């Protein structure tokens, strides 16, 4: 295994893992969170970060068994597992399915070998296709990721690649523009002037517009800035984030948002895997002390997450959280330039506004 040079997620590389020791720690943390949130209805589970598809299927089944004992589950419970093409085997996937996983999210990232190499991926296009075929044959719901606006990528090349992806797709695609993050290998190269061939802003915007057009034409609705799905196949788990619902984060570096005793808290686990594991075993928790989130800060988070969705945000909920409404002057100014719209009490970004989403959010937030 290796860490991809564009990734700023909390991921680590290890030669050996004692899976049963980790299982005991996860089960212990689930028990702890289960006491805090007893009786709540569980709507989604997401195995993400690193490469969950390296876990033995019986480990996944044991975690899911514990979760079902702790919380009542919705009839349409969504259980997603992230997978890299290098770690997909038919037998292993059948084991995940039999253990309770019902959706796969696969990190393909590119459909040509040269760009996979540039992105630091360890699989080939042929391996990605084989992995996708295995996933599609095993699960009814399969999503995969692609990154565009890559080095030296032309709009015609992206059109051909996305058309190929749409022909393969089952029900969901996550399509991300390559972003250069501080603290990553790509970020370091960019700072030294050694990351060449990145597209100019106008080309990136054109690629974004083309993405929306091709996906819409293929019946994959752009329900979120970077996510496209057939109607009814949207990621229920990610919608909880974007709609500012409650979720528990368990595992190294995991974040959560939980409402407890009428207060909303931000939770964060220790980032370093060994430190998290030792803390769970010695202290009964791998989580840092919880931080209460003020109403205005909740409102800001709600706005930043919700405007990513095509459905937008409920303005009255913003006001209830913040204690004051969004600025009518700012809303009018942004409406006049065509980047937002307001109807039925909801504020939404327009097609043009979604291209400029960060700037729109920055303008709407309180001074």
Q: Which CATH class of the largest domain applies here?
A: Alpha Beta
Number of domains: 2
CATH superfamily label of the largest domain:
Aldolase class I
What is the N-to-C succession of helices and strands?
HEHEHEHHEHEHHEEHEEHEHEHHEEHH
Say what oligomer this is: single chain
Q: Treating each run of at least 4 consecutive H or I residues as one helix, how many helices?
A: 15
Quickly list its features:
TIM Barrel, alpha/beta, three-stranded antiparallel β-sheet, 15 helices, 2 domains, single chain, 367 residues
Structural commentary:
The chain is an alpha/beta fold. Helices cover 44% and strands 19% of the residues. The chain has 15 helices and 13 strands. It has helices at 19-36, 57-70, 90-99, 113-118, 125-138, 155-168, 185-191, 201-217, 236-242, 273-283, 295-306, 315-322, 328-336, 351-355, 357-364; strands at residues 42-47, 73-83, 103-109, 141-148, 172-177, 221-224, 227-229, 255-260, 263-268, 291-292, 313-314, 340-343, 346-349. The strands form three sheets. It has a seven-stranded mixed beta sheet. A three-stranded antiparallel beta sheet has the order 8-9-10, with no helix packed on it. Strands 11-13-12 form a three-stranded antiparallel beta sheet. Helix 3 (90-99) links the parallel strand 2 and strand 3 (103-109). Helix 2 (57-70) runs parallel beside helix 3 (90-99), helix 3 runs parallel beside helix 5 (125-138) and helix 11 packs antiparallel against helix 12. The radius of gyration is 21 Å and the shape is globular.
């Amino acid at each position: 295994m290796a860490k991809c040079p564009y990734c700023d997620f909390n991921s680590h590389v290890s030669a050996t893992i004692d899976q049963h020791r980790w299982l005991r720690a996860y089960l212990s943390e689930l028990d702890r969170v289960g006491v805090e949130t007893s009786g709540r209805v569980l709507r989604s589970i997401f195995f993400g970060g690193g490469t969950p598809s390296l876990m033995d299927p019986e480990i996944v089944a044991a975690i899911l068994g514990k979760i079902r004992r702790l919380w009542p589950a919705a009839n349409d419970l969504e259980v997603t597992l992230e997978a890299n093409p290098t770690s997909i085997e038919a037998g292993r996937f059948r084991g995940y399915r039999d253990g309770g996983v019902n959706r796969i999210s696969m990190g393909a990232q590119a459909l040509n070998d040269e760009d996979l190499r540039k992105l630091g991926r360890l699989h080939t296009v042929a391996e990605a296709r084989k992995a996708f075929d295995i996933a599609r044959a095993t699960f009814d719901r399969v999503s995969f990721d692609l990154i565009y606006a890559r080095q030296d990528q032309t709009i015609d090349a992206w059109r051909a690649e996305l058309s190929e992806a749409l022909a393969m797709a089952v029900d969901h695609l996550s399509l991300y523009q390559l972003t250069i993050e501080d603290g990553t290998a790509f970020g370091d190269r960019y700072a030294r002037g050694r990351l060449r061939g990145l597209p100019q802003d106008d080309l990136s915007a054109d690629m974004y517009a083309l993405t929306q057009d091709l996906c819409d034409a293929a019946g994959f609705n752009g329900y979120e800035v970077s996510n496209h799905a057939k109607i009814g196949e949207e990621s229920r788990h990610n919608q909880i984030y974007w709609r500012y619902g409650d979720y528990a984060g368990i595992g190294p570096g995991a974040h959560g948002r939980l409402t407890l005793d009428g207060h909303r808290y931000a939770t964060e686990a220790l980032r370093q895997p060994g430190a998290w594991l030792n803390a769970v075993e010695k202290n009964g928790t791998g989580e840092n002390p919880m931080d209460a989130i003020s109403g205005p800060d909740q409102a800001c988070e709600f706005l930043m997450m919700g405007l990513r969705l095509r459905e937008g945000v409920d303005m009255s909920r913003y006001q209830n959280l913040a204690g004051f409404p969004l600025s009518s002057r700012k809303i009018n100014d942004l409406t006049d330039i065509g980047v937002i719209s307001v109807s039925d009490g909801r504020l939404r970004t327009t097609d043009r506004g979604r291209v400029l989403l960060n700037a729109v959010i920055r303008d709407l937030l309180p001074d």
